[in-house]
Structure formats: C-alpha cells, structure tokens
Amino acid sequence: MKDKIITKATDLFLKLGFKSVTMDDIAAEMGISKKTIYKYFGNKEVLIEETVETMHQTIDVAIDNILSQQYNPIRENFEIRKMFKTLFQAADTSPLYQLKKHYPEIHAKVMCKEMEDCSTFLRQNILKGIALGLYREDLNIETVTRFYYTLVFQVNENTISEKETQELELAILEYHTRAIATEKGLAELEKHL
Questions:
Q1: Cα 128 from Cα 193, distance rounded (Å)
Q2: Domain containing 120: what range?
Q3: Pair 189, 174: CB distance under 8 Å
Q4: What is the pLDDT of residues 90-139, one digit of tens each?
Q5: Would you say residue 141 lies in a domain?
Q6: Whose CA is closest to 52, among 88, 6, 87, 17?
Q7: What are 24-33's contacts with CB under 8 Å, separation 24+?
Q8: CA 164, 169, 156: angle at the middle one, nearest 5?
Q9: What gap in Å lies between CA 70 and CA 135, rounded to an integer?
Q10: pTM to 2 decimals?
Q11: Helix (H) or strand (E) holding 61
C-alpha cells in the first residue's frame, strides 16, 4: 500500500504541484481513508520526501539504463534530456521550483544529492568525450562541470513553467556542447538538434 500511495502522490504532485495537493486529495483519488495514508507517512512533508527519493531512484535507474547503451557522450546527453522530458511531461510547474518555493528544507536535501550525482555523471561524460575526440582535450573538467550544472539547476529552480524549463534546458545543452566540442563533436551535435 505504501508504494501505491507514493505512486499516486507522485502523479498528483507532478500534475498539480506539491503545495496544492492535500492528503485528502490523495486519499480521495485512491479511494482510501486519510488515516491509511497517515499509517505510512506521519505528515505531508514525510510523504513528499519519500516521493522525491523515489523519483530520484527512478531517475538513477533510467540514467544507468541509458549509460549501459554505450552511446557516444553527446547522444548520451540528448537521451538523458529526452528521459527527463518524458518523466516530467505531466508537470505544469517545475518540480524543483515548487520544492524550493514551498519546501526549502526538502529542496536543500535534494540539491545536495542531485549536484553530487550530476557532477559525477558530467565528469565521466566529458572524459569519455575527450577519449572519443568529440570534446576538446584542453578542458578544465571541474569548471565545465560546474558551469553546466549551475545553469541547469538555476533554470529548474527559478523557472515556473516546466515547458519553458525544458526549452531552456535544450538551449543549455546546445550551449554546453558547442563550448566543449571539437569539429567532430559539433558534427555529432548537429545530428541531434
């Protein structure tokens, strides 16, 4: 039952927003009592934390699946972007924006994990791109990594509309790739734009 509640809560939070969905809304959607929800989650914040953690795990599995396909690093970035677009297509408002605005403590925890994971992935992606001749060899990997995730997270945290967020993320991905790509990498980028 706990997993079913998390699944339904995730769906509602993404569609309607973390702030606007109540425990009553979740109970009504599931045809259960609010008491049943409170049996598993002490309050709404606990439910949101567990929902966000479940989303994080889902994203990790999806990214691992993409990485296992052994795409070149530029395609890998576009495949990950596509995965995020699909995952959050039901959301009208950026989930990170909502968390930052309404649940700053949960947002802070999420950002620590996300920045660490993002940095690790980007470093690996850049090293792979350099090895394949798609990215320049003279890159300062730490600086490039910080630039990219700073841009992405600033957009996600400060843009209300999920549609606008996704459009800006595509622009950031193109900007990032053009900044670090070799001629071979630019040719690969053009295939994906």
A1: 21
A2: 55-192
A3: yes
A4: 777 788 888 889 999 998 888 888 888 888 999 999 999 999 999 999 99
A5: yes
A6: 6
A7: 30/4, 30/5, 32/1
A8: 70
A9: 17
A10: 0.86
A11: helix 44-68
